[in-house]
Design goal:
By secondary structure, the protein is mainly alpha-helical. 42% of the residues lie in helices and 7% in strands. It has helices at residues 4-8, 12-21, 36-42, 52-59, 74-82, 95-99, 114-125, and strands at residues 25-29, 67-70. The two termini are 15 Å apart.
């Protein structure tokens, strides 16, 4: 997902181009504006953590672009492409090293497991999605 900070900075095209250059096929994408309730639901795994309120506020502050992509070893390859959550710790050339402002405003999100990927794809692209 391309987060509100990267959308606001007009980095959508370059981020998608980086993904394609890395061998990802873009299967689906959507422009969404998450309500705080939906942002909290999406990040429910972080319930009780001190940064959740700030994350919910940020993710509902502007449009985001969830993307469904495919390639061999997609989860690890995408996480390698985007870099560490904290851009100060991200390897040079990664998306977060190039475009993230901070650990909280870090330009992109990527699933961390097959289970998360399935749930996140269903959240944004499933038949019952409320985020259309």
């Amino acid at each position: 997902m391309i987060k509100p900070d990267a959308v606001e900075k007009h980095k959508v095209g370059v981020i998608l181009a980086e993904a394609e250059r890395a061998g990802f096929e873009i299967l689906d994408l959507r422009l969404v504006r998450l309500a705080p309730r939906d942002a909290r639901l999406f990040y429910a795994v972080h319930e009780g953590k001190p940064f959740l309120e700030e994350l919910v506020q940020f993710m509902s502050s502007g449009p985001a672009i969830p993307c469904r992509v495919r390639r061999e070893n997609a989860i690890q390859a995408l996480r390698d492409l985007i870099g560490a959550t904290d851009p100060k710790e991200a390897k040079p050339g990664t998306i977060r090293a190039r475009f993230a402002e901070s650990k909280g405003r870090n330009a992109v999100h990527a699933s961390d497991s097959p289970e998360s990927a399935r749930a996140e794809i269903e959240f944004f692209f499933g038949d019952g999605s409320a985020r259309r």
